[in-house]
Amino acid sequence: QVQLVESGGGLVEPGGSLRLSCAASGSILKIYVIGWYRQAPGKQRELVGTISDDVVANYADYADSVKGRFAISRDSVKNIVELQMNKLKPEDTAVYYCYCYAQPHFLSGRQAYWGQGTQVTVSS
User: Fold this and answer.
1) Of 21, 29, 98, 118, which is least packed with CB atoms within 10 Å of its CB?
2) 106 pLDDT exceeds 90?
């Protein structure tokens, strides 16, 4: 199966920047969508942004709340996805989860996979 491991979370002041990284490993035939979700205390998990190869190569989609501040990049050879977060706000505080929709091998269907999450706290 597919394992996702995140790194790069931490504490940052409002207006600052952080870069999250996620490495996918294991049995991977193809990753169709990879990206990030987040969950703040007391709220539902929500989309941050993803990169998809399902229809258009490297199509990036972002939540309206992060457009213009966050950017996703992907290394398809190394199966790494990164999230550059700029101009961070206190409302960006959440646990950030790496996500992918992938096919592990020829005999399997496509499945969703999640990382363990990394905490991002924006506070002065």
Assistant:
1) 29
2) no
